[in-house]
Write a structure and sequence with these properties.
This protein has 760 residues and is mainly α. Among the domains are: 95 residues, Alpha Horseshoe (Serine Threonine Protein Phosphatase 5, Tetratricopeptide repeat), CATH 1.25.40; 127 residues, no CATH class; 116 residues. The protein has 41 helices and no strands. Helix 4 runs antiparallel to helix 5, helix 20 packs antiparallel against helix 21 and helix 28 packs antiparallel against helix 29.
Length: 760
């Protein structure tokens, strides 16, 4: 064939391509474009071919075929790089339609406010599932968009599973008005209103959904389902709506009839109504069918055996749902063993591969919430000839099952409230498994660090700190534990005469002064003095002297523990400075998890100034004095606190009760003080003091259980008595004899001379 014939064929391919584009046949246009480029290479043919590909991408996006559109966009970038500049926006749309958000989410991290608004506006039409944004690894978990997506995903799951409470809907308020997830927020609220039969609220929320968002399609369906105007609809349209809604109105009437039959205790009518409802089950979606069955279980369980329920609900004998419904009925009836049955149910489904392990974790979490170790129906005596631990999984075993199922980090985080049930050995095992499964999770690392610090395993704690620093953890509890562990480890090294290692660790602590605060810096300064060579020690000692009362207390503790002599000039603070300094020193020791063993005599100097102390100072001094066994100071501090009678009255009264126990007071007096403190704590909702009061009451040798509560008048009498009463035993001892009692020996041989350095 000659050149003229080939030119004629090429020209016909170009004309055919243009005709196909004009008709809107994008699939045929792409095929024609391939032929054109092959037969007539050149820039003009490539430009026309890219136009054909672009039209095909638009058509695929309109049909909801995002992945196919993205695949063709990739072909355009690869084969026609010189022509993609004018089609950049469309090619990006193809990536977004396919759910590829990583490239745009990465830009949010460092974007300016104006650029961020543009990027979020770009995302709005393409978010078809907020959980995809929540799970995107390219988005910083602390980013506002990540937080909003988690909120929408969680609340959406709630409102589509059951009726949500107002508290569960509250997190939606945190979603910004101009967020790309704002339309989804309105859709979630509309769904919640739909299930609550609040049609006007549904309409208001649907009207607020941005029409560009995919959430608008869900709003259109809700508008149809709640439409009040039926005139003008054909019978076919009515049947379609009834089919989509699952015969909602009809089924609602049937359920009300079932409830009425149950209320009248008419079993025969109840059975007939249930059978009538079962004939409507075919209209329901699997999810709606499940919800209807669950709603009816509490009623049916009172009147029918499991086999009868299975027949009414059309459930086969070997169907796994039957086992689930049986457990639900046992749980609703308060029967024992519900937790172990849930665990066995999840184990069975997982073993049969009917559910994925991560789905089983939700069942395990539900079982975990049911545990009640005080259940009197559960026999835990192994001598009765049956296995105990194997049949009755404890919290640790259930948590380990959850961890082994490798769920999402958000699911693992829900385990945290149940960790306090575990013994130390179990807790360490569970936390180690959690860290292995999710190394970046802060919760297990912080808890393991707290456990190591409590057990004074400082080497293990330092290893955890190294890992936490690499993760750049910003948890305040981690920061506090990090400071405590490193300073206590320095003390340990100094006691072992390892000054070089101590200096290196102190330098590491000093690199993060923001973790220490002002008084933590005083603690660091005292340890630096203990590790410093003589030529530098004097300079550090002078700086410690300028720190006032806090410096004195810290030096007394550090040198007392290390057995080191020192010469610090005695300070002469004003009463206000003395009270404030002592309380700051006590707070510092508490943050370092240590008791003031060597500075108790400094705390006792405040006794003559208690009338000038604030409520907080009195409580701090009284608590520290009680720990240091300075009972007279603790008594005086509580007396002054009871005289003030402020917002901490219940705490002063409970501290007085603890002093009464230490002083071996008459049990009746102690019990009344505890009960009055508990009653006052209940008024101000102080659960910590309420729990402590209950613990103290049960520890008394005299403890009577009574439902009677103290009246306000009786509480006032108790407070007045304690405010002016004498400490038990003081009236029988002569002060002169007490003064002649020889002092208790101190562990530090230098303590006598050191104390003299502080005294005026």
């Amino acid at each position: 064939m000659g050149k003229r014939s080939r030119h004629r064929d090429a020209k016909s391919a170009r004309v055919r391509l243009e005709e196909l584009l004009a008709k809107g046949d994008t699939r045929g246009a792409v095929e024609a474009a391939k032929l054109l480029v092959r037969e007539e290479p050149g820039a003009a043919s490539e430009s026309l071919a890219v136009q054909a590909y672009a039209e095909r991408i638009k058509a695929l996006i309109a049909e909801g075929l995002g992945r196919e559109a993205a695949a063709i966009a990739g072909i355009v970038r690869e084969r026609f790089p010189a022509h993609v500049a004018s089609w950049t926006s469309l090619l990006e749309d193809a990536r977004l339609a396919a759910g590829d958000f990583d490239w745009i989410l990465r830009e949010l991290h460092a974007a300016s406010e104006e650029r961020r608004a543009a990027l979020e506006e770009r995302l709005l039409p393409w978010i078809t599932d907020p959980s995809v944004i929540a799970g995107a690894s390219a988005l910083d978990p602390t980013d506002p968009l990540a937080r909003e997506s988690r909120i929408v995903a969680e609340v959406f799951e709630t409102v589509t599973s059951r009726i949500a409470s107002p508290e569960e809907m509250t997190p939606l308020n945190d979603i910004r008005r101009r967020s790309p997830l704002a339309p989804w927020k309105m859709l979630v609220r509309a769904i919640d209103a739909f299930y609550g039969n609040q049609e006007e609220r549904v309409a208001a929320n649907v009207a607020a959904i941005d029409a560009r968002s995919p959430a608008a399609r869900g709003g259109e369906i809700l508008s149809v389902l709640t439409g009040k105007r039926k005139a003008g609809r054909s019978s076919a349209a009515e049947r379609l709506i009834d089919r989509i809604s699952g015969g909602r109105a009809t089924i609602a009437v049937q359920i009300r009839s079932i409830e009425a039959a149950a209320k009248d205790d008419d079993r025969r009518r109840l059975r007939e109504e249930l059978r009538s409802l079962a004939r409507s089950f075919d209209k329901l979606s699997p999810y709606a069918l499940e919800q209807a069955r669950l709603a009816l279980l509490p009623i049916c369980g009172l009147y029918f055996e499991p086999e009868q329920i299975g027949a009414l609900f059309r459930i086969g004998e070997n169907d796994a749902l039957m086992a689930r419904y049986a457990v639900i009925m046992m749980e609703a009836g308060g029967a024992p063993f519900a937790q172990s049955l849930w665990v066995a149910f999840a184990d069975g489904l997982t073993k049969a591969k009917k559910i994925e392990p991560w789905q089983a974790s939700e069942i395990y979490l539900h079982a975990l919430a049911l545990e009640d170790e005080s259940d009197e129906f559960i026999c835990r005596d192994p001598s009765h000839g049956h296995p105990v631990e194997d049949d009755l999984p404890d919290s640790a075993q259930v948590i380990e099952k959850i961890i082994a199922s490798k769920p999402a980090p958000s699911v693992l985080a829900r385990v945290a409230p149940y960790l306090d049930r575990l013994e130390t050995k179990e807790l360490k095992r569970v936390l180690t498994a959690w860290r292995k499964n999710d190394p970046s999770a802060p919760e297990p690392l912080v808890r393991l660090l707290a456990l190591a610090a409590k057990q004074q395993r400082f080497d293990d704690a330092l290893a955890l700190i190294r890992k936490g620093d690499r993760l750049k953890m910003i948890d305040p509890e981690y920061t506090r534990l990090r400071m405590r562990v490193m300073l206590r480890k320095v003390e340990q090294l100094l006691a072992a005469q390892k000054r070089g290692m101590a200096e290196a660790l102190l330098a590491e602590v000093a690199r993060r002064p923001e973790d220490l605060g002002e008084d933590g810096g005083t603690y660091l300064l005292a340890l630096e003095w203990a590790a410093a060579p003589p030529e530098k020690a004097s300079e550090l000692l002078a700086e410690l002297a300028r720190r006032g009362v806090v410096g004195e207390m810290v030096m007394a503790e550090v040198t007392g523990d290390l057995g080191m002599p020192f010469a610090l000039p005695a300070s002469h603070p004003s009463p206000e400075d003395l009270l404030a300094g002592v309380c700051r020193g006590i707070a510092l020791f508490r943050s370092a998890d240590r008791l003031p063993r060597h500075s108790g005599w400094l705390i006792e100097r405040t006794k003559v100034y208690l009338d000038r102390a604030t409520e907080g100072q009195l409580l701090s001094i009284g608590s520290a004095a009680f720990v240091c066994r300075a009972i007279e100071l603790a008594w005086a501090a509580t007396a002054q606190g009871l005289t003030i009678g402020g917002t901490m009255l219940h705490r002063f009264l409970l501290l007085r009760a603890e002093v009464l126990i230490r002083a071996r007071s008459e049990p009746r007096r102690t019990a009344l003080a505890i009960e009055a403190a508990r009653a006052l704590a209940e008024r101000v909702h102080d659960s910590e003091i309420m729990a402590r009061a209950t613990e103290l009451a049960h520890g008394l040798s005299y403890f009577g259980t009574s439902d009677e509560r103290l009246t306000p008048e009786e509480i006032k009498v108790i407070i007045d008595h304690e405010r002016t009463g004498e400490m038990p035993g003081t009236h029988t001892k002569k002060p002169r004899k007490k003064a002649k009692r020889p002092p208790k020996p101190r562990s530090n041989p230098q303590s006598k001379s050191e104390k003299g350095l502080f005294e005026p």
